[in-house]
Write a structure and sequence with these properties.
229 residues; 42% strand; flat
Length: 229
């Protein structure tokens, strides 16, 4: 084996290895913002000894204890039910007929063309096209997750983030959630539906033997990425 062929084989092997490594890279998470935040320290207020009104606890007497500040916990009720149907039909039809009847004498015409046109010719053409397509998609996601207030925006809206991990017999299920909510939409019990969350990002990832069985192998993914057909 010559040196040139050896270099070619090494280059080919290196390229194939890079494709395999690229195929093995795990997909990036759609939840990119922080999913937890520590609460800020409370501002010290002067207490009025002997007074009924205390500024530090006044809100608890007249308001439902719901998430308002950074670090507070809010319960998200995931109620996602999405369905979509798309159907399309198209068709086209075109036909034509041409009849030619020539004379016995055609001046300035070559002999072969004059012989063809001097008789009677019938030409018929037809073109038909029909297309049909339909797409159905349905997704249902239900559950609950406790999230943390990561930030409070200037208009009072709350930026939320959180995750939940459940491991059973070596199988791990990971749920991540992020979004923005209006505190006025928070219901009694410090809960809010996921349908009331803006910029919501919900992600469910499984790890373990069952998840591996439902994943395409790295070599098959590598070939699928470069297969031209």
């Amino acid at each position: 084996m010559t040196l040139f062929k050896l270099i070619q084989l090494r280059s080919l092997f290196a390229g194939f290895l890079l494709l395999n490594l690229a195929a093995c890279v795990a997909p990036q998470s759609i939840v990119t913002q922080p999913i937890s935040a520590r609460p800020q320290q409370n501002v010290l207020t002067q207490s009025n000894n002997g007074a009924i009104f205390q500024s530090g606890t006044a809100k608890l007497l007249f308001e439902e204890p719901v998430a308002r500040r950074i670090g507070d916990i809010l319960i998200i009720t995931i109620e996602e039910n999405l369905s979509a149907v798309n159907s399309a039909n198209s068709g086209a039809n075109r036909s034509g007929t041409l009849s030619l009847g020539g004379s016995t004498s055609l001046p300035y015409m070559p002999g072969a063309i004059e012989k063809l046109l001097s008789g009677t010719a019938d030409i018929t053409s037809e073109n038909t096209f029909a297309g049909k397509g339909q797409t159905n998609s349905s997704n249902t996601f239900k559950g609950t997750i406790a999230v943390t207030v990561v930030d409070v925006l200037a208009n009072g809206n709350l930026v939320l983030g959180g995750e939940k991990q459940i491991a059973v017999n070596g199988q791990t299920s990971l749920i991540r959630f992020s979004g923005v909510v209006n505190p006025n939409d928070i219901r009694a019990g410090n809960t809010i539906s996921s349908t009331r969350v803006a910029d919501a990002r919900i992600e469910q990832v499984g790890q373990g033997a069952i998840a591996d069985a439902n994943t395409m192998g790295w070599m098959q993914r590598a070939f699928m990425s470069i297969w031209p057909f």
